[in-house]
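Forwarding the complex inputs:
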Amino acid sequence: MTITRITPKRRLSLFEWKELIQYRDLLYYLSLREVKLRYKQTSLGVVWVILQPLVPAIIFAILFGNFARLPSNGQPYLLMVFTGLIPWTLFSAAVGRGGGSLVANSNLLSKIYFPRLIIPLASISSVLIDTLVSLIVLTGLMAMFGIAIGFKLLAAPLFLACALAMGVGVTLLVASLNVYYRDIGFAVPFALQLWNYITPVIYSSELIPSHLRALYSLNPTVGLVEGFRWSVLGGAPITPLMVISMLVGLVISVIAGMSVFQKIERGFADIV
Amino acid sequence: MTLPEDIAIRVLDISKNYQIKHIEQIEAHGKQRARHRLSWLGRQREGIRQAVSHETFWALRNICFDVPSGQVLGIIGRNGAGKSTFLKILSQIIEPTQGSALIRGKVGSLLEVGTGFHPELTGRENIYLNGTLLGMRRRQISSVFDEIMAFAEVERFIDTPVKRYSSGMYVRLAFAVAAYLQPDVLIIDEVLSVGDAVFQEKCLGRMQSLGDAGRTVIFVSHNMEAVAALCDRAIVLHQGMVYFDGSPQEATDAYYSLCRQDNSSTQLEYRERGGSRPEIIQAVSSAYRPPENGSRDEHGILTITITGRIEPNDPLSNRRLHLAIGINQENGHRLGTYVANDDDDEGLRLHQGSFSYAFRVDDPPLHPGTYFVDISLLCREETVDSLQRCADFRIPHPTSNHYKNRDAAWGSVRFTCTGYNSTMSGPEDA
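Prediction (whole assembly, two chains):
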């Protein structure tokens, strides 16, 4: 029989993957709960998952593509925006939904023991369903516009994985700090909106003046969006610098998120 | 640190403290300084400086004990004694400041009924969600699913959202999930206070059978009868420390003496007070002195003392008053009433100044348990001063083992038989 050892905080400890795996069914049911509750008592249900990215994409396409005539890498504007929205939404919705997850589930934290990491992960996994549906819509749009696909498409899952991992890292950071400073909960929506503007989601980074392009590329999410576009549609203005800052941002956010989360994880129940 | 084979839980010197913030507002000297202290969000007003000091509060201090495998351990203590903090540490929800604990096997803890239940989800979904929260795998839940459903008596509503459940169904379902978790160590906080008597009985039965099956159970309760009936051993926590550790009977006695000690320092305590003059009665105390050991004929004595004061020139000082004493069970049910001077036309004549009446009942016909006292001061039809639950006394378990297996179904009144006739008939001869 296993022996549980209860002691005061250890300074450094390895991540308890074993325990996380042991509780994987919980991750499944908590994610299921998130998804079910999101669309419970809606009559359109899954249609909302389709409409959520599609409607803004159509609006931006009409505004920026038809009226303002902004550049779109030679692709249909709608398709460019929709493609950009997929990795961006994966990242931002993860942070948006997962950031408040620990505080929202404080009743669980203070009454039941389980690996705390499961709570933000469950919120994030509900975002994956949305992404999956969006990918199906994207396939439809591509067929509609007659876009040919190439070997570059193989890189698309990698960029999505990066968006997810970066989302997990930032979420862990935000979620655990939110337990101590509820200000974070107010700041996150603003921050995400600003971040959205400096990421080429509803416009192409071609729009950025060339002397500012290098500075612009330091934003890790630029690489996510342009990288995904490049692999799906081709012809996106992606540079090596974008990919490098994306990878650096990814590593930093995951390490920072994990270590901050782990450092203050055991004190959550005393604080919330 | 190792754990001997027969020990399920070893608690070694566990302490837990919290920092409490005190904010004192101090008048700042001089306007200049005051202006400097003006801070954003208007949290500090002009001219007032806040001094923040921290005090260390020890919720638990040096807790040490072993629990052998298969033991049902009760933890009792007054509110704020540290019981829940201790259970949270054992359940790994919070961590101790000092010390350590070792637990053998899988721990299941139920600190609150229905944590993690979501009103929008169906009974079935909640069983799976809650089961996995408590550390079960999906397969394990499926294998006991029917038993959980049967225990909770919700078969017909299993696919209905739990927000449509009656509160009884909700509580039964929540307890059932934890009760069928089959942990090696089950930790239960005061959760049985919810639900009706039938449900409580069912839960206690379930816990009993877990104990019989060799599982270790730690059980916090304010229901002393349940602790006495269910536990092999009980620990009294007081101000974060182990105050008593031993047999449940002795522990509950220790707990009650602790309650009385704490009460003596305070003034009159009551749950409710009413009447036209709710200030006459100033103190009520009650005590039961059990029969002396060894002398069989000696009986226990219950005394109830009521003290009060009537101011000079009070119109009440010339009126006839009656004192009524109500004795209630732990659950608040009235057992009986005694009205002092009820059939005496004179009644009590309280003169101005202080008065004190001590009523004595020899050998009160009550089973072991805790009883509460209500007092009313009456003047004809008018209630002058009435106090609910203003004193308590406890009839302890006798040292001889007559009542060892007594249960609540026996009731509280002990009838004594003063004589009987017996007729016996054998098989009649043809």
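Chain B is about 20% helix and 35% strand.
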